Each structure stands twice: as structure tokens, then as C-alpha cells.
């Protein structure tokens, strides 16, 4: 399963000029400032200027805060509709026949895994994440440049997989249901409510805490081995036969957890896209 999810820097350095590949640079940031009372404000930021300064040869750039989100949705950074996704991907030359390689520079690879999830949500399964991302690529002395590539328009055909995305009402109905496990991918401070991003702190009742950074080897920046991920999942009480519904603040960090579980063969994986940005603002939804 691992080779269906990840490519190594060594592999990509050999296949950079493969015409069947399309590489997406998803670098970006979440800038969070925490006040003394535990409240936290976050800004969602793209990194197009960094891309234009230097990137993997042939890579196109997509802004995780604009290009792949519905800017009209009151909940921040919700996945864009099918028409927008088809237009954005087609314009940068990504079509149905391409193998897509995604990278970013986040310690948990969460912007790359967000794009992995978006592509799978719209039916494109031939997508892989560059293990170790931008940081490992550069550290190893692999080639970069500032040339802006041109790829002719390609036809991307969205094929929606609604089971990969959950709405708040669906998640609320799942609380306490057998065979369903809610997973909180935020850090433990937010899970416990000590750090509050929004009006209410805490977590969705019954949710298990699994911070996404635990799934990354901090020394190399790569995803942990299958055995290590499996051990983490087992300790958290996650079972492959259950439906796993992950959330975070904006449905982004959650995809790092979903991606890791997919590596080890979990198949029933759902992203609560609205996540805490939506949940904490709705007084009709319970908090623990």
C-alpha cells in the first residue's frame, strides 16, 4: 500500500521528466498566535512567492487557501465544488491520465495530504505524496529552479466520492455509534480545551486524540513506517474495519491522519471538512 501513497525523493529525481507526471507545489502556512487566556487566532496563508523563487522543476503551484476552496462558504477553507476543481486543475495541465505528485514544506505534510484528499474526493486516485517534501528534497541537493512551467490544458473529469466527506449533521449523528470512530488531529492543547481557537474549546464528544505530528518521523520529515503507524493506530484504539472520521480546525491536518491510515490499509476514511471552525461556532452541537 505504501508505494500507492508515497514516492521517495530518489524516485522522483529519476522521473522528473516523465511526461505522464504532474507535480504540484502546495506550500503554505497556518500562522497561529495564542494569547495568555488560551484563545488562539489563526491566519491561513499561501506561499506563491516562495514557489516563484524556487520549486521542483516542472512543478505547478496551487494555493491551498484560494485555488481549491469555496471562497463563498462561510466556513473557512472548505473544499471547492467540482466545476472549480476541474477548471483549476485543467488550467495547470492536470488531467485524468496523469500521475500527480504533491509536496509541501509542512512538518506534517498536511497541505500535500489535503490535495491528496481533494483529488481522491473528486475521483482521481493516481496521486502520491513526496515523502519528506520540499525540505528533504532541498536538503539532499536535488534540482530546483524558478522557471514557471507551461502545460497545455488537460481535461480533468470530477467523479464525486461523497463518502469521503462528512457534514456537521452527519458527524453529530455518528457520536456514540458502534463501528464509527471520531479522531481529532489537532494538538493536545486544543483537544483538551486549554487552547481555544474560536468561541468554544474542547473536542467533539467521544473523539480520540491523535495529533498528526505523531505520524511523522521528526528527524527525516518522512512518514513513519507501516509498523510504527499501525502501532500508533492500535494504541489509539483504531480498527481498520471501523469507519474513521477525522477532523481538525479546517479539514486540512485531518487529512494527514487519514493519509497515514490509508497507507496501512484502512479504507473507511472520512474527513469532516468543516471541523472545529464550524463545530465550535454552532451552539446546537455538543462539546466535550
TrEMBL record:
Coiled coil feature spans: none
Q: Which GO molecular function entries does the Swiss-Prot or TrEMBL record give?
A: thiosulfate-cyanide sulfurtransferase activity
Q: Where is the Rhodanese domain?
A: 46-146, 176-288
Alphabetical list of SUPFAM superfamilies matching this protein? Rhodanese/Cell cycle control phosphatase
- InterPro entries (UniProt xref): Rhodanese-like_dom, Rhodanese-like_dom_sf, Thiosulfate_sulfurtransferase, Thiosulphate_STrfase_CS
Write the record's keywords in alphabetical order, separated by commas. Repeat
Known PROSITE patterns for this protein?
Answer: RHODANESE_1 (PS00380), RHODANESE_3 (PS50206)
Which Gene3D superfamilies does this entry report, sorted A to Z?
Rhodanese-like domain
Catalyzed reactions: thiosulfate + hydrogen cyanide = thiocyanate + sulfite + 2 H(+)
- Taxonomic superkingdom: Bacteria
Q: Which CDD domains match?
A: TST_Repeat_1 (cd01448), TST_Repeat_2 (cd01449)
Q: What is its EC number?
A: 2.8.1.1
Q: Which SMART domains match?
A: RHOD
Enzyme class, broadest EC rank = transferase
* UniProt name for this protein: thiosulfate sulfurtransferase
